[in-house]
Each structure stands twice: as C-alpha cells, then as structure tokens.
Automatic annotation (TrEMBL):
Keywords: ATP-binding, Cytoplasm, Ligase, Nucleotide-binding, tRNA processing. This is tRNA(Ile)-lysidine synthase. It catalyses: cytidine(34) in tRNA(Ile2) + L-lysine + ATP = lysidine(34) in tRNA(Ile2) + AMP + diphosphate + H(+). GO terms for cellular component: cytoplasm. SUPFAM superfamilies: Adenine nucleotide alpha hydrolases-like, MesJ substrate recognition domain-like. GO terms for molecular function: ATP binding; tRNA(Ile)-lysidine synthase activity. It holds the Pfam family ATP_bind_3. It comes from Paractinoplanes brasiliensis. Residues 25-195 form the tRNA(Ile)-lysidine/2-thiocytidine synthase N-terminal domain. It is found in: Cytoplasm. Residues 286-353 form the tRNA(Ile)-lysidine synthase substrate-binding domain. ATP binds at residues 30-35.
Amino acid sequence: MARIPPAVAAVRLAVRRTLPADGLVLVACSGGADSLALAAAARFVGRSVGLVTVDHGLQEGSAGRAAEVAAWATSAGFDPVTVETVSVAGLPGGPEAAARTARYAALADFATRVGAVAVLLGHTRDDQAETVLLALARGAGPRGLSGMPARKGIFLRPLLDVARADTRKACAALGLTPWEDPHNSDPAFARSRVRGMALPALVEALGPAVVANLARSASMIAADNEALDAQAAAALWTTGGGPDAQAGELWTTGPDQLDSGVGSAPMSQGGWGRRRLLRTPDCLKLDISGLSVMSAAVRRRVLHMWARELGAPGSALSHRHIEALDALVTQWRGQGAVHLPGGIQVVRDQGALVRVP
C-alpha cells in the first residue's frame, strides 16, 4: 500500500476531527490551495459533501474560474455543486469587507436551501496568525486577539491547526492545480502586506514557531473570552431572588462571582452581600451598585451585551463606547450622556444607567 503523503494526511485528519457525524456538509471553495485541499479531504473523509464557489465579480475572468471549480467538483463527485454569484454594490466597508459580507450571506443562504448542517471554510494556521497581527495593529481587545473561531454557527474552520504550506503540498501530492488570487499579493490590502512582509519578518527575527505561537495564543484567548462572556451573560440574563424574579432582577454574590441559581435565597459569604444588578422588564436600566462590584473584564462585557440589547449595531460598537459607559459606573463626575451607535443615548440617573427615551 502506497504511503499517504504527510501533508495529505494532516489535512484529512483535521477534517475528520471536525466533520459532523451526519448530514450534508458543504465546502466553500475558491479554487485556491487552502480551500482546494480542504475540499479534496472532505470528499475523501465525508459521506455527503457538496461544494459552493462564490463569484464576486470583482476580477476579470472570475465567472470562468468559478465555472472551472464547479466543473472539477462535479467530476470529483461532490453533490450538490453550485456557483453563487453575488454583488458587493452598496455593502458597507472596503472591497474586502463587502466581499466577505456578500460571500458569507450567499454561503448561509445556499446551506439553508439544501439543508446542509455545516459549511467548511479553508482558513489555515497562517491565516489565524495574520488575523492576530492585524488585531494587534489596530489595538483590538481580547475579542479581536482571539482570532477566527473554529466554529461559528453553521461555519466550521477545520484547518486552523494546519499550515498553509501543507495545503499547497497536499494539492501538489494530489495533482491539483490551485488558483493564485492576485489580491493575496496586492500591497493595497493590509492582510496582503502582513502576509508578504510583516509575518515573514517576524519569522526571520523570531523563528518559524512564531506562526504557530500566534495561532495558539488566539486559541487560549478565545477560551478565556468564552468563560468571561458566560459570566457576563449570566449577569445580564439569569433571574434570581425569589419573588423579584418576576421583575427581571439579577443578582451578584460578590465582586467577581455571579449567583445563577434560579429561585435561590439571599446569601452572604465573607461579608459579600447579595446585590441587585439589573434589570427592568424593558431592559432599559442597569443598576450601578451591582455593576460597580464586578471585575472590569466582566462588567465591560455586561455593558457591551446591554448596548447590543438596546439596539447598538455590533459592527459600529467600539471600545471607546464601552469605556464611556464604564466611566459612568466607575468614574462618575456628573458627565453627560454617552452616545452609542444607532442613535442611542445612555445617562446615569438615580443610581442606574438609563437609556434616554
């Protein structure tokens, strides 16, 4: 029996670990080395695998390349196979952001139409390292530094622990010829500059392990974020305190710990009294006394979640908005309203953060 090339084995193992046990799985494939290697591995490992290629219409010949990818997929036994043509006109952000928005919408829509249980994306360890560097450059907090999630809704990224070099080697070993997207080397794009200059400079200065270490750091930060977000969600949504539960009130049991027990009795431990945190039935108020005893990491997440619940769009909600809300709690000097995206105003009034009607 012929020995499987190590790069092919690495990609297949990563996909095998990720694939759902049952149901139709789609591969998002541009024809580049990463998504092509992913598609080949998914077809080898999976039982029911389809393929989607998206034509953004942003490059000359894009329709023909999409048709070539679809033809290859059909000949390789993928079912269903589709070319989804999208328009980026009128979408927010630059060309990259607009294309990404249109692409994900098309992938999710097709997955719904055919009843797919997952859509596989071909982002690699190198992509994750680039994402972390870009987040550092723009001063992103833990959310940005956690990189791309391995799983978000219907989208799965099996190759986040696989090197980009291995996807190229896998394609070569399987006789697949990937398409080289010229945007990936265009210095007009920040990610291309990171890929072509910044990350290679770091590798030269610090050694090749820097790529894996950046990706590993993202994974560890993501785990910390998940734990802190769970605490914040409990603070924002869990009801407790017996009769007060009908009023939608939440409670803390100390500076950093949350009592999530529904219907539990008031308690005191080590001098920590049980304190009302929030909220009125319409979720328009946050009680200052509860927020003020929380750790900054949890409190700011609560404020972020609350701002989203008030209607502030997440894409426009920045750390400056959350810092301004936090200052109403921890640095109160009689300042005026905090203006959030979406035309929302929040003031401090009678011991609570209150949305201005």
